[in-house]
Amino acid sequence: MLSKIENGQTSSAVATLSKISDALDIQLSWVLDDNPETDIMILPQSKRQISLGNENMGYTYELLANRSKFSSIEPTIVHVTPKDTNLRHDPYTHSQDEFIYILEGSIYLHYDGQKHYMETGDTAYFKGTNTHLFIPVDNQGAKVLTIFVDNGD
Predict the structure, then answer these.
(1) What CA dihedral angle connects 14, 16, 18 and 24, to 10 degrees?
(2) Integer-rounded Cα radius of gyration of the chain
(3) Terminal alpha carbon distance of the chain
(4) Residue 79's CB: how many other CB atoms inside 10 A?
(5) Any residues with CB less than 8 A from the CB of 136 and at least 6 apart, and which?
(6) What does each C-alpha distance from 40 to 21, 62, 63, 67, 129 come to in angstroms?
(7) CATH classification number, 45-149, choose in 3.40.50.1450, 1.10.10.10, 2.60.120.10, 3.40.50.720
(8) Which of 18, 75, 123, 148 fits as disulfide partner to 64, beta carbons 3.0 to 4.6 Å?
(9) With 60 as the cut, is the pLDDT of residue 38 above it?
């Protein structure tokens, strides 16, 4: 049956595809996506999703490469909102490790109970399972290249 599905010789019920995606530990949307897998994904700036998230909560972000289903990394730009409009005070956790590079401005990286000042050009790599939060230093806000890395845990 799997061979027939793979070779387009039969169609399958969504329930069957759901079971296959569960067994492979992948999202059902990946199985249903009819966009071919390619070695390169070009995403022009004009087609990027911008302003995901909530500015009043302290950030917005834009996906730089929509390849999360093909790769264990997900590059984004986090736009840290200016100090006066940033209402976020509760730290985040997530399962991915995180690499950050400060593109513009400066932030305080609150990580696992410690506060680190970071400015343009600074980098950090940390475990996303530990509490962390980007806090703006001033009303200029900041742009942070963030790469989420699925470490397989």
Answers:
(1) -140
(2) 19
(3) 31
(4) 23
(5) 58, 80, 81, 82, 83, 86, 105, 107, 108, 142
(6) 24, 19, 16, 9, 30
(7) 2.60.120.10
(8) 75
(9) yes
Q: Of 58-62, 81-85, 101-105, 129-133, which one has max mean pLDDT?
A: 101-105
Cβ neighbours of 127 (radius 10 Å): 16
Record the tokens describing residue 75, joined without a space: 């590059």
More confident residue, 116 or 61: 116
Q: Tell me, yes or no, if the pTM score tops 0.85.
A: no
Query: Which backbone phi and psi does 67 adopt, to 5 degrees?
Result: -125, 15
Domain coordinates in residue numbering, the chain? 2-32, 45-149
As to burial, measured by CB atoms within 10 angstroms (0-12 exposed, 13-18 middle, 19+ buried), residue 59 is buried
Q: Which residue is it, tokens 């806090």?
A: 135
Across the range 51-56, mean pLDDT stands at 57
